[in-house]
Structure formats: structure tokens, C-alpha cells
Amino acid sequence: MIRFQQNARPRTDTPTHLFAIGQTVRMKSRIGLVQKTAELFQIKSKLPVKDGSPQYRIRSDEETYERVTTEDNLEVADNPSA
Prior knowledge:
The chain is elongated. By secondary structure, it is an all-beta fold. A five-stranded antiparallel β-sheet has the order 4-3-2-1-5, with no helix packed on it. Strand 2 (40-50) and strand 3 form a beta hairpin. The chain contains no helices and five strands.
């Protein structure tokens, strides 16, 4: 038998997306690894949370395909025109 708790509050611990569609970001560099390129990516769409981290579909002008990554792999591009 399933019982529901009365007066239960909705969960509010679901992470929210930090980046906006159209925002320019770059991939974070990993400690001890040289970043292949300092490519800039544009957020194309927001995807559902996976393992506690919001996901995004991103695209670089240098590539012919889109990538899917989690928010913890991205950082704001300080100078998008560079």
C-alpha cells in the first residue's frame, strides 16, 4: 500500500540551469590535461538534469555537430569575441 504524506512540501533541491540559451561558454580545462583548443561554444538548448547536474546541447562554429555536456564541464567565456 502506498501512503502519501499530507502537507508534504514539494522538493526544491532540483538544480536549475545556470546558462541561458544563446550564451557563449567554453569547456573547463581538466587538471593535468592540456586543453585541445580554447573553443567557444554557444548554448543551443537546455536538457534535463543528469546525476545532479543540468545538461546542455552546445555547438561550436568550428564543428559540424552538436555536443551534449553537463553544466559542471562548462564555464562562462570571459571574452566571447576572442
